[in-house]
Design a protein that fits this description.
alpha+beta, 10 helices, disordered N terminus, Maleyloyr_isom, MDMPI_metal-binding, DinB/YfiT-like, TIGR03085 family metal-binding protein
Amino acid sequence: MGSGGAGPGRRLAGMSTHAKRERLLLADLLEAAGPQAPTLCEGWTCRDLAAHVVVRERRPDAAGGLLLKVLKERLDRAMAEYTAKPYEELIRLIRTGPPKLSVYALKQVDEAANAVEFFVHAEDVRRAQPEWSPRTLDPVFSDALWSRLEKLARLTGRRSPVGLVLRRPDGRTAVAHKGVPVVTVTGEPGELTLFCFGRQAAAAVDLEGEKESVSRLTTAQLGI
């Protein structure tokens, strides 16, 4: 996998931020899977996912459509434009990273905005393929994901139909949604991140609570 030589991907690989490592992994996974391979993003192939990643950091005028309905039409046009590009070009643009003048080119912004984004999308590709298994994340990255999840828990869990508590195997917890009855979701930080970002069915977690509450939570629309 990957695009050998001393191109942008190799330069990025020499930088140690989690976001850049996950960026390169995502590019490699997309390349290996191929443009028509499925993803966990409902209705999206790997081509669609690759176009989304590129539009998000190269078309800020359209990317706002991910959150604002008034920009949805502009986002749809940008997605159509990039989806029509050669798949190899999309992979290259992901590996290259954002333009120099982009806010994402700032290391701190890239790490804050993209470490989780690229981790989740890498798993969107991996876990849509047969015979996948959970990644073993290094402790530093796991802690980084947990730190980010603690900050985002209330946002990602705001649509939970029940009280939602996240718990690491070591006992550390975060409240994602207040309420009763309560469901406690236990797992490694990466798995909890996937759960909270709407990938409940693919997350390797244990759920503790009333059967009906667990069922409602696993089909709820979680995420940002």
